[in-house]
Amino acid sequence: MVRDSFIKSLIEIVGESHVECSEAGLMAYSFDATPNFQSKPDVVVSPANTEEISQIVKLCEKHQVPIVPRGSGTNLAAGTTPTQGGVVILFNRLDQIIEIDEENLTITVQPGVITKTICDTVEAKGLFYPPDPSSMKISTIGGNINENSGGLRGLKYGVTKDYILALEVVLPNGEVIRTGGKLAKDVAGYDLTKLLVGSEGTLGIVTEATLKLIPKPETKQTLLAIYESIDQASQTVSSIIANKMTPATLEFMDQPTIHAVEEYSHLGLPTQAEAVLLIEQDGPHSVVSEDIEQIALLCRKEGAIDVKIANTEEEANRLREGRRAALSAIARLSPTTILEDATVPRSEIAPMVRQINRIAEKYNVRIATFGHAGDGNLHPTCMTDARNQEEMERVEKAFEEIFAYAIEFGGTITGEHGVGEMKSPYLAWKVGDAGLEIMKNIKAAFDPHNIMNPRKMFAKETRKRIAL
Amino acid sequence: MVRDSFIKSLIEIVGESHVECSEAGLMAYSFDATPNFQSKPDVVVSPANTEEISQIVKLCEKHQVPIVPRGSGTNLAAGTTPTQGGVVILFNRLDQIIEIDEENLTITVQPGVITKTICDTVEAKGLFYPPDPSSMKISTIGGNINENSGGLRGLKYGVTKDYILALEVVLPNGEVIRTGGKLAKDVAGYDLTKLLVGSEGTLGIVTEATLKLIPKPETKQTLLAIYESIDQASQTVSSIIANKMTPATLEFMDQPTIHAVEEYSHLGLPTQAEAVLLIEQDGPHSVVSEDIEQIALLCRKEGAIDVKIANTEEEANRLREGRRAALSAIARLSPTTILEDATVPRSEIAPMVRQINRIAEKYNVRIATFGHAGDGNLHPTCMTDARNQEEMERVEKAFEEIFAYAIEFGGTITGEHGVGEMKSPYLAWKVGDAGLEIMKNIKAAFDPHNIMNPRKMFAKETRKRIAL
Questions:
Q1: Does B56 touch chain A (CB under 8 A)?
Q2: Angstrom distances, CA of residue A16 to CA of A9, A20, A45, A46
Q3: Same domain flag for A152 and A266
């Protein structure tokens, strides 16, 4: 618990109306989108600018009070839960687009801007910000930066990190630094920009970011292919790549997902389907139509029982609807939905999905898998009930085995959600003891008093979902 | 000086024939491509594998002997000179391509492989490794990784860092870690891969790397535009970007460079030309011919006095010849050539070139500027004589002022060459005192005994070129 004098100091910095201490207010920021991780903060503040954030950080450092920076709280790995109490910092008052630079193709924003607002704003000018996490309608760019968010366009366009050119950051000692610039090339010292992106709020607080933009693709076309076998779908992915094409979207749904989607949306997907691929290509008109035609041929050649090509934007939306509805369709089937993101090299998707299905059966848990086939980023999603302790133990064991297989296949425990508190017990599996050691040293180099989002990324103990 | 017993231990690790202690041998590795920085190592070793490197590092850590990893020594910022003596590690025995994975579009290589060998090998399979530093015919991929090398294709395709997916690294304590994977998405912990790329050998020794490949562009077309004013050339660059095109190459030469090239190569460049742009586009046939046509129109519209489009590969080679010959043409005009790489946002190229010319006049030094106009990465190149102490002092002052202007324009002290020892006195200008402090903390987090390429990046004193 923080003292009253600490709260008083916070009020002096940001003003009384921007400090929240009520029970209801603290409750609202005690959880994020991760089931079963809840922990109340001591206080929630909404600073107005970098200077106020710097003062808050200095105050917290002096009193060794934990700080949890929080965007819209869509985190799926308990990355924004105030596990150790302390101060939750909100960015709702830092929500301005500062500049669009059409000559250097950059946009400079405050961390509280909603991701989709950025996309819409630049597209109106014929420009394009590619990273499109599924949460983009509500997530903030600050959250995306802290988590290095991915999205559907990752295969062709990369992830958030690939588009962050410069940052303003408040360090854990309260000092403000600026990294990078409106520069495609900059090798002056260690790359703090790329180190900070994806550091989950454990190294500093992002207060401003300059993002790289590219010209908006001329057009986009959409295709849906339905398969009776996962291997045929997976073989199609390989064939597309082998034929030197890089689709803008290459999404996958397995049978349990298709069933859930069909029950929910009645799109007419055949029940015998074992896999669906949603494929989109964007770019110049001539290239897109040629690629889509060739991709349709490859789908059929690899054994697709149906290939639908959208001729209008309405048809395209209808084809996308199934994949878009996947999480909602699955979520309505059980009280608790756990969305994971074990990721493997593209070539290992079929064997990985088979392992996931085998593991689900072994532990008698319900798992549907969908995700980004083009980049091997799968979302095995468990339908369960957090109140059922016995089942949750089986869920935990199933995911443990899924993570182990992901690593065995040359993959990782998290492709785009982050480690947070939830996956911290597994981080050493991916990076090794020596890797974990060096990461802890980096953390200490930035934050010797461990005030920035403590207990995230690095497990203090092996607490997992079940050990609440 | 290291002791005989230390040399004996090295011989036990790598074998006598792979330890070099002769005066001539040490002399050969006492310098890199940076004028005026020379310093003899104590010993040069050529290990055969990761295990031997790990043993060498452990030995050096025990005796606190500096280690300088060295590829082909093409470094331009005194990044591979053994400033503090110690052991130079060569990678000539780690020169194997380990695997080409056509399904996941990756190539895995040892650090001693020549960059161009990688490009040629994958192009033969219809694949493409885009980073193309000018030194690619002799530089090693290990050197490129340590320096995060750029190249001519940076605007469209990015730099080395954008293509490094995974590393095997020997840490300064001798432990071996593996970072990343054949993965487009991986957010498990801090991004050690991107931190190590460009860390100039100060954090660890790269012993293996997995590189991302993309499909090889179908075709490429080349255009040369000649201008009587720098502003018109610069305006053309802006117009191309404003018209949503991203050329594969967008190179610039100023008047002194054109003069030097013309004297050397007799390409028929008009002597009144103040600027030349070499522009290339690659991609699908239809896109390339349309883009090149539109770019030619823009060049003329902005005032180009001549626009040449190559119709054959021979013609393209002829158009490229001037830019390719730039450094050689300049280098023959004086005993010492100092090639710099101050970099600015693309929009600031014209004002920056004007400042460079003004500064050259002010200090009465000869500077020709060429470089990558698309990404603002300029190469102001000074023709001087290192034996003339008084002139070198003026050269130093001129570059100091150039760096200061680069930063004033929102740029950086180095776009693709690295900080090394040479630019270490200027690093704080770019990253600030707080930024420098955090970088020093990161260095200490990896290398507490400061054995890995010491005195690089971080200046111990303000030693510069002149203070030998």
A1: no
A2: 10, 8, 9, 10
A3: no
Residue A3: the pLDDT is 87
Q: Which residues of chain A fall short of a pLDDT of 50?
A: 462-468
On the 0-12 / 13-18 / 19+ scale of CB atoms within 10 A, A22 is: exposed
Say yes or no: A182 and A302 in one domain. Answer: no
Give residue A461's pLDDT: 52
Strand partners, B219: B283
Question: Does residue B40 sit within a domain?
Answer: yes
Q: Please indicate if any CB of chain B lies within 8 Å of the CB of A175.
A: yes
Looking at residue A135, its amino acid is S
Among the listed residues A278, A283, A342, the one whose alpha carbon sits nearest the alpha carbon of residue A130:
A283
Asked, for residue B185, whether it belongs to a domain, the answer is yes
Residue A462 domain-assigned (yes or no) = no
Same domain for B138 and B248, yes or no, is no
CA distance A404 to chain B (A): 14
Distance (Å, rounded) from C-alpha B48 to C-alpha B374? Answer: 41
B191 touches chain A (CB under 8 A): yes
Which residues on A lie below 8 Å from B343 (Cβ)? 183, 185-186
- Nearest-CB residue to A194 (from B194, B287, B417): B194
- The residues, ordered by sequence, that sit 6+ positions from A12 with a Cβ below 8 Å of its Cβ are none
B285 and chain A in contact, CB less than 8 A: no
How far is it, in rounded angstroms, from Cα A423 to Cα A458? 9
**A227 and A176 part of one domain:** no
Helix (H) or strand (E) holding B378: strand B377-384
Nearest to A438 among B171, B375, B415 (CB): B171
Contact: B242, A431; criterion CB under 8 Å: no
A417 — contact with chain B (CB < 8 Å)? Answer: yes
Mutate to test the interface with A, among B438, B439, B458 (most CBs of A within 10 A): B438
Q: Which string of DSSP letters, residue by residue, matches A28-58?
A: HTS--SSTT-----SEEE---SHHHHHHHHH
**Are residues A83 and A210 both part of a single domain?**
no
Is B269 an 8 Å CB contact of chain A?
Answer: no
Query: Which contiguous run of DSSP H or E holds residue A256?
Result: helix A255-265
Q: Does A102 touch chain B (CB under 8 A)?
A: yes
Instruction: Provide the 10 A C-beta neighbour count for residue A95.
Output: 16
Residues of A in contact with B434 (CB under 8 A): 171, 175-177
Which residue stretches of chain B have pLDDT < 50?
462-468
- Whether A428 is in a domain gets the answer no
DSSP A346: G
Q: B107 is in which domain, residue-wise? A: 97-215
Q: What ipTM does this complex have?
A: 0.95
Q: What is the pLDDT of residue A35?
A: 87
**Looking at A368, A384, A408, which one is the last position of a domain?**
A408
A7 contacts chain B (CB < 8 A): no
Q: Are A258 and A373 part of one and the same domain? A: yes
| Residue (of B279, B275, B259) closest to B326 by Cα position | B259
**CATH number of A80's domain:** 3.30.43.10
Q: Side chain identity at A443, as an amino acid letter?
A: K
Domains held by chain B: number? 4
Q: What is residue A460's predicted lDDT score, i.e. its pLDDT?
A: 73
Distance of CA B318 to the CA centre of its chain: 25
Q: How many angstroms separate the CA atoms of B173 and A229, rounded?
A: 49
A186 within 8 A of B413, measured Cβ to Cβ: no
Q: Enumerate the residues of chain A whose CB falls inside 8 A of the CB of residue B374.
A: 184
Tokens coding B24: 């001539």
Only one residue has tokens 């309608």, namely A137
Of B250, B280, B276, nearest in space to B265 by CA: B276
In this structure, the answer to whether residues A62 and A210 fall within a common structural domain is: no
CA distances, A447 to each of A49, A171, A458 (Å): 22, 8, 13
- A195 touches B: beta carbon within 8 Å: yes
B439 and A192: CB-CB below 8 Å?
yes
